[in-house]
Every structure is written in structure tokens, then in C-alpha cells.
Amino acid sequence: MKRGFVRGLWGIYNKEWIYKRRYKMDNDVELLMNNPYSQPFKTYVFGTDNYKYLVDKGFDCKLVDEKPILYGYENTKQHAYGHKLRIFKEAMNDFDE
Questions:
Q1: How do beta strands 5-9 and 41-46 pair?
Q2: What would the pLDDT profile of 18-38 be if each residue is shown by its tens digit?
Q3: Which one of 25, 50, 79, 92 is most buried, by most CB atoms within 10 A?
Q4: What residues are paired with 65 via a beta bridge?
Q5: Could you give the CA distance from residue 11 to residue 19 in angstroms, rounded to a whole number?
């Protein structure tokens, strides 16, 4: 049985209300890099720039799509949960649970 912790990253650097969370993620990445208790995990990434950013930091990543955003902000729930569901779908190809 293959198990794992899964993380995801998507978005662009933009100050519009829904996209501004991408700025916060850089801080979260730094916290993960300095956390002595962090468990191994795989990160599923949208966007080639985001992918390069994480790979350069030494993270184990899989590029889900070359575009950083697949679901626009005209529907907030679709923006957040659409990406998460796509990550779950990809992760089920790599992990059993």
C-alpha cells in the first residue's frame, strides 16, 4: 500500500482579491522548509513558473497543468475546490490512500 501526504499549489501573483493568496503561499513554503517535524510529501502544481519555483527549493513535485489557473474567480468555490479536486484525482494515480 502506498500512502503519502499531498499538497497543492496554483495561482498567479496578482493583488485581486481571490488571487492574492498566492503571495501567502511563499511564506508557507519557507515555513515548510524550516520545519524540523515536516513529513515527506508530494506537491501537485499548476503552472510552469510555480513548478520551477518549488523544484528549485528542493520539493518533490508533479506538474498537473502548465497553466497556473484552470478555474477563474467568477465562481469562488469553483476556483478553490476545482483545483483541489483535480489534485485529488492526480494523487490517486500515485497513491492508494
A1: parallel
A2: 556 777 888 889 888 889 998
A3: 50
A4: 46
A5: 6
> How would you classify residue 16: left for phi > 0, otherwise alpha for psi between -120 and 50, otherwise beta?
beta
The band of 73, judged by pLDDT with boundaries at 50, 70 and 90, is low
Q: Closest by alpha carbon to 8, among 97, 73, 78, 69?
A: 69
Strands (E), 1-97: 5-9, 41-46, 61-65
pTM score, two decimals? 0.83
Strand locations in 10-88, DSSP E? 41-46, 61-65
How far, in Å, CA of 97 to CA of 14, rounded? Answer: 34
Where do the domains of the chain lie? 5-32+41-94
**Integer angstrom CA distances of residue 23 from 10, 17, 38, 40, 50:** 11, 11, 21, 23, 12
- Which residue is associated with the grid cell 484552470? 70
